[in-house]
Design a protein that fits this description.
- This protein has 183 residues and is α/β, with parallel strands linked by helices.
- It has one domain: Nucleotidyltransferase, domain 5.
- Helix content is 43%, strand content 22%.
- It contains five helices and seven strands, in the order E-E-E-H-E-H-E-H-H-E-E-H.
- The protein has a seven-stranded mixed beta sheet with strand order 5-4-1-2-3-7-6.
- Helix 4 packs across helix 5.
- The two termini are 17 Å apart.
Length: 183
């Protein structure tokens, strides 16, 4: 099973793909996850929002075509004091959910604190603790963390590097695996 984790945003959307053994359910989970791909999609801040959403959609479609994930796990929207950012992130999530819905790919959602708790052992973990947790769960796959940058069609850039956004996306995907293993 291939799982696509997404940390949504309009300026930067982190993504992380992991491969989970098919026999995960019904056996002891030994953290044998394979890192497939990771990185982030960024759109120019000086571009109109509707164009940025088209860029995001286009690059997400390329990811879905290339890796054909079995399910998508997206971080749930957190409404803080900045409603403008929340609305923009909500629009990006809508684009992602539309792509998944059009392909009949199941979606699962987790909050930031849920992810931090599952990955780092505390719902208030910092970025460093989450990063270390992701490395622990991907152990054998750690060799794929070199930095690459690839320009994409449409003005957006799909960057392949171990950024906070990519780390968060991988953490979101791993959280779902942990939930499956606990079931």
């Amino acid at each position: 099973m291939i799982i696509l984790g997404i940390d949504p945003g309009t300026a930067t959307t982190g993504y992380g793909l992991i491969k989970v053994p098919d026999d995960l359910l019904g056996r002891k989970f030994d953290y044998d996850l394979e890192l497939v791909d990771y990185g982030f999609i960024s759109t120019p801040k000086d571009t109109l929002m509707e164009k940025r959403l088209v860029m995001l959609h286009h690059d997400l479609e390329k990811l879905l075509d290339q890796f054909k994930p079995d399910l998508i796990v997206i971080e749930m929207l957190f409404f803080g004091s900045n409603t403008r950012t929340a609305i923009a992130v909500g629009q990006a999530r809508g684009v992602m959910m539309l792509s998944a819905g059009m392909r009949n790919i199941p979606i699962h959602e987790y909050t930031g604190p849920q992810v931090k708790l599952m990955i780092a052992g505390s719902g208030r973990a910092d970025k460093k603790q989450v990063h270390e947790g992701v490395r622990k769960f991907l152990g054998k796959s750690g060799k794929k963390t070199r930095e690459l940058v690839q320009p994409m069609v449409g003005g957006a850039r799909r960057n392949k590097k171990f950024s906070d956004d990519a780390t968060d996306a991988l953490a979101i995907a791993i959280t779902h695996v942990l939930k499956l293993a606990a079931a």
